[in-house]
Amino acid sequence: MKIPQRGMTRDEVMTALSAAREADHDFRNGRTFGYAYDAGREAERVSKEAYAAFLSENALDPRVYPSLRRFELEVVSMCREHLRGGPEVVGTFTSGGTESCMLAVKTARDYFRATKPEIREPEMILPITAHAAFHKAAHYFDVKIVPVTVDPETFEVDVEAVKAAITESTILLVGSAPSFAHGVIDPIRELGELALERGLLLHVDGCIGAFLLPYVKRLGREVRDFDFSVPGVSSISMDLHKYAYCAKGASVVMVRDKALRQHQIFSCAEWTGYSVVNTTIQSTKSGGPMAAAWATLHHIGDEGYVELARRTMDATDRLVAGIEAIDELYVMGKPAMSLVAFTSDTVDVFHLADEMKLRGWLVGPQLAYGPSKENIHLTIIPTHDATVDAFLADLRAAVEAAKGLPLSPLPEQLRATFASMRPEDIKPEVLQQMLAMAGASGTSLPEREAEINQVMNALPRAIGGRLLAGYLNELFTEQALGS
Ligand SMILES: *Cc1c(COP(=O)(O)O)cnc(C)c1O
Description:
Number of helices: 16
Strand order of the largest sheet: 1-7-6-5-4-2-3
Oligomer: single chain
Bound molecules: pyridoxal-5'-phosphate
Number of strands: 13
Distance between the termini: 15 Å
Structural class: alpha/beta
Shape: globular
């Protein structure tokens, strides 16, 4: 494709854009259980207008646009109060949860480089329920992951296992509030005690829950402490583009004090251009996300968030009760808020996800890992209060339909073939063949995804990861444009 020789008019461009989104999933209809955080049309409008108003402003240099620094400082200040941090707590507006988590890991690494240079190969102790963003951080910043298991019933990290995993090279402990997969809060208070006792940093990943949990607590529900009121917590990540309903590209990483945050900042004057000094991974960045976040927090307001939390938790209660009432299904662990994983010992959950998709519902299949068997994940939002009953009726029908579907022998065959192979020995051609066998040949995904999920579920994780990377590499080639 070439840049069009003559520019299109505004109308032509807008028509083309509208046409392009025809195949997109409608996330506003309460039938999507992930990806979308919807607080209603008016909130969306405010967000979009604010975003557009500051779209062209650049937060590269905080002195050039005082408006942007102010939005960031005020958003961070609201977040600090929300997380019960004292005035010494500082924070940074980032592009999302991944960036927030990555910065927390980078800060820990550089803090220990400065204070304990004898640590040559820093380690972070990571519950297997912690978000993949920490694996990304470990990969990018060369910090070793020491995985620790979780309780097979509650899916909370085993603090004794964390304790046993600490070595001379440990720099960072991580807990989730809550975990994405099962929606449970790790024992942050115990982790904090351990961090203080051993002189370690503790990051609380509140990306998905830290904003909502204080509201859940205000509804009178039991919520375990996870914020800066807990001694030993050194940083918290909290996404605003999830349960604060801000436009995407909005998260904060909050740090216990300026002295620690100093290690987050990158500066460089060793080149011929302008001096670079950033708190974030991004350098040039639009003012849109921070203006939109500021606008959304002000528009919805504290009372609005309480009401959205009430609707979310009511929908969650009804969904959990409805799922538990289906003989074949059960909820895993005890969700602390609105993230629910459910599974079955008799029905294939990947077929079940396909059957729900056929009925117009987008749910999140999750693969088995450690003590967590394969399951279906639901991220529940306020607009689900109107669709719970329809969802449960279709879920009952989908369970019946899934019961009759056969299980392919392919996953077991592949498991046997690849059990002894090292991921790095698998050639690209073999990955191609595997994708083709699973029905995801070339660049298209099959209408039914159960088989590819079953294959992924059966393969050693490192090999499954390579398979996905190969698939993504194909997906973003020009040859894939047509499909
Ligand atoms: C969503 C999420 C992240 C990553 O956030 P992104 O905004 O998708 O980059 C990290 N941790 C948890 C617990 C999350 O739910």
